[in-house]
Design brief:
By secondary structure, the protein is of the alpha+beta class. The chain contains twelve helices and 23 strands.
């Protein structure tokens, strides 16, 4: 009797201690919440840029998810937003099932002026913005033509969500002027235009306008920055002087300059009319065509190649970290020097490989590329930034020896082209928190087994392991019988 009472007492104490341990573990887990992202693409790990934006929140941020639980993106979006909530106590997330919570959905849709179901709404103060489903993900439609369903290619919801929050925190509208009148890239053009970049800037809330510089005495007073994208004819000295005055007063500009080739026998390099202005800021145009066989794209020639991001500037931080190259085509190199204003400095952003060179002799260009002693040797600087650490010197420049990298065609082809363009513009606008966040590419893991390996695993898991369990049970039974 005493033995049985002692056993029951031991079991009671054990169960009480077990319950206490369970409560303690749950209490500590609640007080010290932590999430682990075990996905290969780190799909649910928010970036430092997002954490910085969330850290700057001064009032509660309401997030409403208008996605049905059976939607393929529902769990991914919810897990990502859980990361936002874990990073900041000011983030409040509410999920709405449009099918089961019809009344609640209609009330919130009316409150936030939402006319579609598949969106995520961000509300801060009295303002709100919503992110549509197609802004959260890129699809691969390669199998759709064979009757299959489109597969998720990359998950880019974090960039869309963080930019929406940033827009609510900084409601001012930047005004970006693109110069015209010199054959610059424009909307349309069957892959040669610059439509995608302009549309992306407009979606982010920027006001994109055109500015014909000919005959003007100054850059528009409301200009947040200036973009010169691929002029084919030179700027007049008066136009270049107006742009230089704008920069001297602290203006921001993105120069996307291609080598201008003047036809003749032999053909020669023409002038952009902006060489003297850029030299004043420490950048000299190479007046060459960069050739990089080591990093070229197959079947497109050595003049179309991938440049690598270098340095620690915010413009290329994500590119360097994720090893994303930028695709260039028919570009010219840059030589970096010292700006006339000693408060400023130049930093390289993109470089070609050491096996590259800058082709300066165009006499036999139609016969192919050949390295000559007079050519510039690689690695070549293909893009550079000019800035000053002093807030009293606000001028900023990004100069690229190629405008193709921002064209619609290469923007969709180059792995880091869009990221580089957006980061450059955000940096020029002093929107450091809004730097583009790379999408999380889907990583499919496949296990390939030979026939012998498959047979071994079948025998191991279907025969051997179950057999061991049965043998252990029989052994225990026979031992008790004794």
């Amino acid at each position: 009797m005493k033995k049985r009472l002692l056993q029951e007492t031991n079991w009671s104490v054990f169960l009480v201690l077990l319950a206490a341990l369970f409560l303690i573990v749950n209490y500590l887990a609640f007080r010290h919440y932590h999430r682990w992202d075990l996905t290969a693409s780190r799909s649910f790990t928010i970036s430092q840029e997002t954490k910085k934006v969330l850290g700057e929140l001064k009032e509660p941020l309401k997030v409403v998810v208008f996605l049905a639980p059976n939607d393929p993106l529902y769990e991914r979006v919810k897990d990502l937003l859980d990361g936002y909530a874990a990073a900041s106590s000011r983030v409040q997330v509410e999920t709405i099932d449009p099918d089961r919570q019809r009344a609640r959905m209609e009330a919130l849709a009316q409150q936030y002026k939402v006319s579609m179901a598949n969106v995520v709404v961000f509300a801060l103060g009295g303002n709100s913005k919503y992110v549509e489903k197609d802004q959260m993900v890129d699809y691969d439609f390669s199998s759709a033509g064979l009757g299959g369903q489109p597969a998720i290619k990359s998950f880019k919801a974090e960039a869309a969500f963080t930019n929406a929050i940033f827009s609510l925190e900084h409601p001012q509208t930047p005004v970006i002027y693109f110069t015209t009148g010199h054959g610059e890239r424009d909307r349309g053009g069957q892959g040669q235009g610059i439509t995608l970049l302009k549309e992306r800037l407009e979606k982010e809330g920027a006001k994109v306008l055109e500015w014909a510089s000919l005959g003007k005495t100054e850059v528009p007073a409301d200009a947040s920055m200036l973009v010169i994208a691929g002029p084919k004819s030179p700027f007049l000295p008066q136009e270049a002087q107006v742009i230089d005055q704008y920069l001297q007063k602290g203006g921001k500009a993105l120069f996307l300059l291609d080598p201008i080739i003047v036809s003749g026998k032999p053909p020669t390099f023409g002038s952009t009319g902006l060489g003297a202005t850029l030299q004043e800021w420490g950048i000299t145009l190479g007046r060459d065509i960069a050739v990089d066989p080591a990093a070229s794209v197959p079947y497109l020639g050595a003049q179309t190649f991938f440049a690598r991001a270098v340095g620690r500037e915010p413009v290329v931080k994500d590119l360097v970290q994720n090893k994303l190259p930028v695709l260039l085509s028919l570009a010219e190199s840059l030589t970096l020097g010292t700006p006339h204003n000693k408060a400023y400095h130049c930093e390289a952003l993109l470089q070609s490989s050491p096996q590259s060179w800058g082709m300066r002799d165009l006499a036999n260009i139609d016969k192919g590329v050949e390295k000559k002693p007079t050519d510039a040797r690689g690695p070549l600087t293909m893009a550079a930034a000019v800035s000053s650490p002093n807030t009293a010197d606000p001028c900023r420049l990004v100069v690229v020896g190629d405008s193709d990298l921002a064209s619609d065609g290469l923007l969709q082809t180059g792995a880091g082209n869009l990221l580089f363009c957006l980061n450059s513009i955000h940096w020029l606008l002093s929107q450091a928190s809004r730097l583009a966040i790379p999408p999380k590419t889907e990583v499919e893991t496949h296990l390939s087994l030979t026939a012998s390996q498959s047979n071994f695993l079948f025998i191991l898991f279907v025969v051997i392991l179950p057999g061991l369990v049965v043998a252990a049970g029989v052994f225990a039974y026979l031992r008790r019988r004794r």
